[in-house]
């Protein structure tokens, strides 16, 4: 068993005032550390997978889409790792837990954190079955709880509630502190969760922010960004993705605060190394280029109709890209893609089936579509 990995070794007081006064007893104070903390934001396209190493200890936060399983496994293996002390599935979306079952079956796993939120998807069932067949149990995250990863301290900051309309807000948020450096990992946590973390008075300050929900406009509220006040931001996002991530308005917030942004679509895998004082990166920062807001109206989730409408209502004059020909859905990391019209309850194999406006049609994975839509009987999409 790796040393220094036991959970609850130190219950860190996350109340900012207590932490400030009680500096000798809290792990969040700038304690002297040896060695390095290495954070790998693995390039898994439009998905998340982050490997964190300190000494001989390691933690994986998310494992990409199902299609990324072998990429993630190989990356971890290439670091000489056979044992993951902690495995975190931030929330039940495929682009976060897709490769989790494969990882569980490939490595010795210490402790698995997942939120209480469940899903009816095959991806989620696969993960649950992998955990069961290994005789393991899932630990539910308790905000304020902390555990050691080598000499680093990991503190859970969210989710602070349950029964969210959008399961992105179920995302486990973790702050990792190593000496005087800190990293915040937010999964797909959106404004709702960000506001809850602010209301709880947690010390959100971090040098490096893993940007929530791939840079979507649903996350990174100005208040939250001001509280984290990072020097660096990292976005895990797929090149030319269909979701319009990252959105320009989010990129502008980073630009305005002079925050260097690293992004997997431009930089590939991003590796941040901390010695407890300074943080260095393996690549140069990426651009502040983002997608126009209109494209971001369709997010990776299907339960946001009110939000989608409000976005659309706010930006009625932005012209949609002209698509006049029938376009078959392209294959992505996420598997089979299908089309959704701007309104209606069916999903389609083509973007101009019947009365739908092809210019407003958007692509989602078949798996996502099946959650809220039924197959169109006219164009007969995959089921
Ligand atoms: Zn999500
Ligand atoms: Zn996501």
Describe what you observe in this structure.
This protein is α/β, with parallel strands linked by helices and 383 residues long. The chain folds into 2 domains: 16-281, Ribonuclease Z/Hydroxyacylglutathione hydrolase-like (Metallo-beta-lactamase, Chain A); 319-375, no CATH class. It has 11 helices and 19 strands. It has an 8-stranded mixed sheet with strand order 6-5-4-3-2-1-14-15, with helices on one face. Strands 7-8-9-10-11-12-13 form a 7-stranded mixed sheet. Helix 6 links the parallel strand 10 (181-185) and strand 11. The protein is globular. The N and C termini lie far apart (45 Å). The model is unreliable at 1-28 and 295-333 (pLDDT under 50). Residues 91, 93, 168, 188, 300 line the site of one zinc ion (ZN). It comes from Clostridium estertheticum subsp. estertheticum. This is Metallo-beta-lactamase domain-containing protein. InterPro entries: ComA-like_MBL, Competence_DNA_uptake, Metallo-B-lactamas, RibonucZ/Hydroxyglut_hydro. Residues 46-239 form the Metallo-beta-lactamase domain.
Give the biggest beta sheet. 8 strands, mixed
- List the domain count as a whole number: 2
CATH class term of the largest domain: Alpha Beta
Q: From the structure provided, what is the oligomeric state, counting identical versus distinct chains? A: single chain
């Amino acid at each position: 068993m790796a040393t220094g990995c036991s959970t609850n070794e130190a219950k860190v007081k996350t109340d900012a005032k207590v932490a400030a006064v009680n500096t000798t007893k809290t792990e969040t104070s700038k304690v002297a550390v040896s060695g390095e903390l290495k954070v790998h934001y693995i390039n898994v396209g439009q998905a998340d997978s982050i490997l964190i190493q300190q000494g001989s200890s390691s933690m994986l936060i998310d494992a990409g889409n199902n299609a990324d399983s072998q990429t993630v496994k190989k990356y971890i293996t290439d670091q000489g790792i056979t044992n993951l002390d902690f495995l975190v599935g931030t929330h039940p979306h495929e682009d976060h837990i897709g490769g989790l079952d494969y990882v569980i079956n490939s490595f010795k796993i210490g402790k698995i954190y997942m939120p209480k939120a469940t899903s009816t998807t095959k991806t989620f069932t696969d993960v649950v079955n992998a955990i069961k067949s290994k005789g393991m149990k899932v630990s539910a995250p308790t905000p304020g709880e902390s555990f050691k990863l080598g000499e680093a301290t990991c503190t859970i900051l969210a989710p602070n509630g349950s029964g969210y309309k959008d399961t992105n807000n179920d995302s486990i948020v973790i702050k990792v502190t190593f000496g005087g450096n800190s990293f915040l990992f937010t999964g797909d946590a959106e404004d709702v969760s960000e506001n809850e973390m602010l209301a709880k008075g947690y010390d959100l300050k971090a040098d490096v922010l893993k940007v929530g929900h791939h840079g979507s406009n649903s996350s990174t509220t100005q208040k939250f960004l001001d509280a984290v006040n990072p020097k660096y931001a990292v976005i895990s996002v797929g090149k030319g993705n269909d979701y319009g991530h990252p959105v320009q308005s989010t990129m502008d917030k980073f630009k305005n605060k002079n925050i260097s942004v690293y992004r997997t679509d431009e930089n590939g895998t991003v590796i941040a190394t901390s010695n407890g004082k300074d943080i260095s990166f393996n690549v140069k920062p990426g651009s502040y280029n983002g997608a126009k807001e209109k494209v971001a109206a369709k997010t990776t989730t299907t339960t946001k109709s009110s939000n989608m409408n409000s976005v659309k209502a706010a930006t009625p004059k932005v012209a949609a890209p002209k698509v006049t020909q029938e376009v078959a859905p392209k294959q992505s990391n996420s598997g089979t893609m299908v089309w959704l019209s701007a309104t209606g309850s069916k999903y389609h194999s083509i973007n101009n089936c019947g009365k739908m406006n092809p210019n407003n049609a958007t692509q989602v994975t078949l798996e996502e579509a099946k959650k809220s839509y039924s197959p169109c009987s006219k164009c007969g999409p995959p089921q």
